[in-house]
Write a structure and sequence with these properties.
The chain is an alpha/beta fold and 258 residues long. The chain contains 10 helices and 10 strands. The strands form 2 sheets. It has a 6-stranded mixed β-sheet with strand order 6-7-8-3-9-10, sandwiched between helices. A 4-stranded antiparallel β-sheet has the order 2-1-4-5, covered by helices on one side. Helix 3 packs parallel to helix 6. It is globular and about 50 Å long. The C terminus is likely disordered. Bound molecules: adenosine-5'-triphosphate. Adenosine-5'-triphosphate (ATP) binds next to strand 2 and helix 1.
Length: 258
């Protein structure tokens, strides 16, 4: 199962008023893969996530989901229904509701209209929410008002809410920005756990985080694929050093400075 591509981007180009933010970018994501997408500011990383979730339509190229569906002509909500979930930097939780209520709302959104007619919490639903609470480490805080959680906990809650919708692919934009070191490490572990069942693409600037948790890294530069491989391979690549590490081979990018 691990070998089949859940997502394949071929030769994707995105133009904004004649400016090519992405130029012929290709990316193949396998089932159960955790992929980090890195690169200097303006490299086109966020635009690639926007293309995958349908927020931005590419000028050229193809994005294939699950080996057969071309999603480049689909609308955002159709892509979400197919199983591609996008989390933006700012958490979109309901702050005045409890952690549990937030998860219940996310759970209900997954239901079909038919199922909502019988919308009482099934034991199975409770089990799934319970499992999710444990996974995001908020089981002790299920009764807390979501607005009272720490920044990291809010991010985990939102990830938990997204997981209840059972996406096959999760797209995350700088998930550890603003987190403490401890929260950052917990998030890395959480992403690995998620990737046991789903595929995850993470756009990230925090190089220490990437080094600690990435197995495969894709480096973009000026809208193009620059290098793909393990963090070691990427770090020892001269072109990456040149564009990304500020032309100093021995340079080491410290937390939040990329
Ligand atoms: N809606 C838009 N209109 C015009 N130009 C845009 C738009 N969105 C992005 N761009 C430009 O496209 C390029 C790529 O932007 P993008 O946000 O994808 O880069 P990025 O790699 O995510 O950068 P960062 O790490 O700074 O977030 C940048 O030069 C940006 O200014």
């Amino acid at each position: 199962m691990k070998e089949s591509a859940i997502l394949q981007c071929d030769d994707v180009t995105v133009e904004f008023d004649g400016f090519k933010a992405v130029q012929g970018m290709s990316l193949k994501l396998l089932k159960g893969e955790l992929r980090f997408l890195i690169g200097p500011n303006g490299a086109g990383k966020t635009t690639m996530l926007d293309v995958i979730c349908g927020k931005v339509r590419p000028t050229a190229g193809r994005v294939t989901f699950g080996g057969k569906v071309d999603i480049t002509r689909k609308k955002e909500h159709q892509i979400a229904e197919l199983g591609i979930g996008r989390k933006f930097q700012a958490p979109s939780i309901f702050p005045s509701m409890s952690v549990m209520e937030n998860l219940e709302i996310a759970m209900r959104q997954k239901r079909t209209v038919f199922a909502t007619l019988f919308a009482k919490m099934l034991d199975e639903d409770r089990d799934r929410i319970g499992h999710q609470l444990t996974m995001i480490g908020l089981q002790e805080k299920s009764g807390w008002r979501a607005g009272g959680l720490s920044h990291g906990e809010k991010q985990w809650l939102e990830i938990g809410m997204m997981l209840l919708q059972e996406p096959e692919i999760l797209l995350l934009d700088e998930p550890v920005a603003g987190m403490t070191d401890k929260e950052t490490d917990k998030t890395g572990e959480l992403l690995h756990e998620i990737a046991r069942k789903r595929s995850v693409v993470v756009v990230e600037h925090d190089m220490e985080f990437v080094r600690n948790f990435a197995s495969k890294v894709t480096v973009m530069h000026e809208g193009k694929l620059l290098k793909e491989g393990s963090m070691d391979e990427v770090q020892s690549d001269d072109r990456v050093a040149e564009v990304y590490l500020g032309k100093r081979r021995d340079a080491d990018v410290s937390r939040s400075t990329a």
